[in-house]
Amino acid sequence: MKWALRRPRGLGGGLEGGLRWRLLAPLLGVVLVASVLSAHAASGLIDAVFDRWLLDAARSLASQVQFEQQAAVIALNRQAQAVLTYDADDRTYFSVLEGDHVLAGEQHLPRSGSDVREYDKGAQAFEAPFLGHPVRVVWVQLASAQDPARVVLVGVGETLNKRRRVFRELLWVYAPVGLIVIVAAWILLAAVRRTLRPLQRMADQWNTQSHASLMPIPTAEVPRELLPFALALNELLGRLREVLEREKLFASAAAHQLRTPLTGLQLGLARAAEAPDLAATRAVLAGLQASTQRTARLVQQLLALSRLDPELASSPDFARVDLHELARAVGESFLEIAHDKGLTMELIEAGDAGAAIVGHPDLLSEALGNLIDNAIRYTPAGGTIRITVQTAPPGLTITDSGPGIPADELVKVMLRFYRGRQASGQGSGLGLAIVKEIANLHHAGVSLKNMDEGGLQVRIVFPAPGQLHRF
C-alpha cells in the first residue's frame, strides 16, 4: 500500500499562494492608498505655494490702483508690466477691472473655474481655460476708502507648466518608497517560502517512509506550530496499521479455520460418491449436513468478528436499547433448541425498573446469542439456563448448570480461537471472543465465574444510567 502526500499543488497553489495573497494584498493596498493620498496632498501643497505667489502679485498690482473722483486709475508703465508678466516657464496674464471697465491687462481673463480655493480677504483661486491653455487665476478685491461701494477687481493668471514640473519632480521623491515596497514584497515571499519549507520537508519524509512502512514519523525536528498536524498524521498512520493488522489476522484466521471444514466437506463428497448403496450415501450426507451447519456457524462468527471495528463506537447505528426487550427477543429465539435438548430457560427481570443503555442492537443480540448458544451446548439434559437482567448498573447475566470452565482458563477462553480442555463438539473458539469485543465497543465489562453449585456464570455490566452517551 502506498500512502503519499502530494506536493506541488497543495503547497504552491494553495497554502503558499494563499499566504502570499494575505500578506501582499494589505501591503499593496496600504501603499496604494498612501500613494493616492500623498499625490493629492502634494498637488494641494503645490497649488497653495504657487497660488500665494499669484496672490502676492495680484495684491502688489492692486496697491498701484488709485481711486479718483470719476474713475479708478492704475500707474503701470511698460517696465513694471514687463516685470509682472515675465516668466521663463509660464505665460502670465493680468487684468484690472472696475465694473465692466478694463483699467489694464486682459479683458476676458476668466472670472470662474474649477478646483476653487478661498483665501483671506475674499481672494479666490481656480483653474480655467484661457487662450487655448489651462491657467490658474487669482482674483482679489480692492474697495475705495471713501466709498466702499466702489470695488476694483485685480486678477493674475499663469499657465501650469511650473506646477506640473514640480509635481513630477516631487513624485520622484516617492520612488524610494516603491523600491522599499518591492524589497518588502520579496522579503515576504521569501519568508513564506522559508516558513512552509519544514512542512514540505515533513511531507517528503512522509512520502519516502510511507512507501516502505506505516510506522510513525519522528517529530523531534518538527516545528512547534506543525506538531499537532504531525501528531494527527502519525495517529492516522497508527490507525491504518491497526486496520491492516486486523485484516491480516482476520484473513489468516479465516483461512485457517475454514480449511478443516472445507477439507471435511471434500472428503465427505468423495465418500458419498464412492458409497456402495443409497443407505451409505444418506449416512455420509447426514454427516455432511452437520459439517455444513458447523461451517455456516463458523462463517457467521467470522463475519461478526470482521464487523467489530472500533469505529463502530461512533456509528449512527448506536441507539437506545432496552435490555429487558433484548433478553426476551434473543431468549425466545433459542427456546425451541433448548426444549429439544431437554433444557429449561428462565428469564429473571429486575422488576419494573428500566434497564436502558446506548448500544448497537444487532451486535448486542449477537453477543447475547453467543452466550446462550454456549450455555445450551455445554449444559446437559435436564439442566437450567437462567438469563437475568439487572438495572443498577444495567447488565445481563447468563447462568447455566453445565460443567463450568477450569479456573486457569477463565481468561484464556475469551481469546480468539482458544478452546478449553473441556470443550466438546466442533466449535471455533470465537464465541466468547466476540462477546468480549462487543462489550469493549460498549465500554462494558465481561466476567466469567464458576458457580459453587456447578455451572458457569457470564456477566456483562454496562456503564451506569447516568453515563448514557454516544461512545
According to CATH, what is the class of the largest domain? Answer: Alpha Beta
- The CATH architecture of the largest domain is 2-Layer Sandwich
- Structural class determined from secondary elements: alpha+beta
Number of domains: 3
- Give helix and strand order, one letter per element, not per position: HEEHEEEEEEHHHHEHHEEHEEHEE
The CATH topology of the largest domain corresponds to Beta-Lactamase
What is the count of DSSP helices, taking H or I runs of 4+ residues? 10
Low-confidence stretches: 1-12
Number of strands: 15
Structure write-up:
This protein is of the alpha+beta class and 471 residues long. It folds into three domains: 13-173, Beta-Lactamase; 220-307, Helix Hairpins; 316-467, Histidine kinase-like ATPase, C-terminal domain (Heat Shock Protein 90, 2-Layer Sandwich). The chain contains ten helices and 15 strands. Strands 4-3-8-7-6-5 form a six-stranded antiparallel beta sheet, covered by helices on one side. A five-stranded mixed beta sheet has the order 10-12-13-15-14. Strand 6 and strand 7 (133-143) form a beta hairpin. It is rod-shaped, with a radius of gyration of 51 Å.
Compact summary:
With 471 residues, the chain is an alpha+beta fold.
Short key terms for the protein model shown above:
single chain; 471 residues; alpha+beta; Beta-Lactamase; Helix Hairpins; Heat Shock Protein 90; 6-stranded antiparallel beta sheet; 5-stranded mixed beta sheet; 15 strands; 19% strand; disordered N terminus
Q: What order do the helices and strands come in, and which of them pair?
A:
Layout lengths: L7 H55 L2 E3 L4 E3 L3 H8 L6 E7 L2 E5 L8 E5 L5 E7 L2 E11 L7 E9 L1 H13 L1 H36 L16 H48 L3 H30 L11 E4 H11 L1 H6 L3 E6 L6 E4 L1 H18 L5 E8 L2 E7 L30 H11 L3 E6 L5 E6 L10
Parallel strand pairs: 10-12
Antiparallel strand pairs: 1-2, 3-4, 3-8, 5-6, 6-7, 7-8, 9-11, 12-13, 13-15, 14-15
Helix pairs in contact: 1-3, 1-4, 5-6, 7-9, 9-10
